[in-house]
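Sequence, please.
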């Protein structure tokens, strides 16, 4: 059941009172009446006509606004609103005339002039409501755009703090310590790839988007480090050769790190991650084999961050789906930026 606030009820009562009083005042000013009875009849007719015109056309405007965006289709909105209002006005005025003629045995004479006047008034009201609605929509759109910009800046900052985090650095140095004693050549390659990872983080910290090539080159360096840790227990396949898209920096790394953090990665249960495209989305899916994590880590790495950034960059939303045997994230394909 729809809940109506007391403030809204009072506003509606106020509007009706103003329209009714205006109808009687207009009747008095125009001097259409010769007796108190005639004044009450004509005054009530005028008041009801005001109510029907204002409230009815307001309802038509609200209905059209619920289906058509004023900002995206202002001309279409105006045409539909004008046609709907004119048809409604002519119908309601003629109906009101017939009801009053039947109920009070009076003759309004030719109703064409009355309908014409009401239609002109309606067009004026329609233009006013359209202009008001357009300005309100424009103001709200500007506020929403500014809010999303601020959230995007915050998200980029949080990605630098949280995604390439101390845990990753600690694990990398642990692996490097072992490599130094076991395989110095591999240790040198490890250091080179680790430096590539952090160079990429610094180079992209102020960018909203990077190319597919840049993101995949970075991911290759990141996966090299992870393969040193997990060996054949981690399998990542990437099939994006035919896809033209850009990425928010670090987004693929964040999702792979999320999969590693929350799933068992072992010889008995190797973790498989697949990255491919389907239906205008980049799909990242991993086998689901959950491990117990600390409460503070249970929310996952970066999913809210990714959602915020894609909300700013695309009309489509990031989709997250958890099945019995896999965890899937779908990222909207972003239009490739021309160099």
């Amino acid at each position: 059941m729809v809940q109506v606030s007391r403030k809204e009820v009072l506003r509606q009562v106020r509007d009706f009172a103003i329209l009714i009083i205006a109808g009687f005042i207009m009747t008095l000013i125009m001097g259409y009446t010769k007796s108190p009875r005639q004044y009450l009849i004509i005054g009530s007719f005028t008041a009801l006509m005001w109510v029907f015109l204002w409230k009815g056309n307001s309802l038509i405007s609200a209905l059209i606004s619920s289906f058509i965006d004023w900002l995206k289709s202002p001309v279409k909105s105006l045409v539909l609103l004008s046609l709907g209002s004119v048809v409604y006005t002519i119908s309601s005025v003629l109906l009101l005339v017939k009801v009053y003629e039947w109920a009070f045995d009076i003759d309004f004479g030719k109703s064409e002039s009355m309908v014409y006047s009401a239609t002109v008034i309606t067009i004026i009201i329609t233009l006013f409501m359209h202009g008001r609605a357009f300005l309100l929509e424009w103001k709200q759109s500007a506020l929403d755009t500014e809010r999303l910009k601020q959230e995007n800046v915050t998200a980029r900052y949080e990605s630098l703090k949280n995604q390439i985090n101390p845990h990753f650095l600690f694990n990398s140095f642990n692996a490097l310590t072992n490599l130094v004693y076991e395989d110095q050549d591999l240790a040198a390659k490890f250091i080179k790839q680790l430096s590539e990872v952090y160079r990429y983080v610094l180079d992209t910290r102020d960018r909203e988007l990077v190319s597919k090539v840049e993101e995949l080159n970075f991911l290759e360096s990141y996966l090299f480090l992870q393969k040193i840790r997990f060996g054949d227990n981690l399998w990542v396949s990437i099939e994006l050769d035919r896809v033209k898209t850009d990425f928010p920096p670090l987004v693929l790394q964040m999702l792979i790190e999320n999969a590693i953090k929350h799933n068992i990665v072992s010889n008995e249960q190797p973790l498989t991650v697949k990255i491919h495209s389907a239906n205008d989305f980049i799909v990242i899916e991993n086998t689901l084999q959950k491990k117990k994590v600390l409460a503070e880590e249970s929310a996952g790495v970066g999913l809210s961050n990714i959602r915020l950034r894609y909300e700013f960059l695309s009309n489509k939303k990031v989709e997250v789906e958890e099945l019995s045997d896999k965890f899937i994230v779908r990222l909207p394909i972003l239009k490739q930026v021309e160099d």
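The mean pLDDT is 79.
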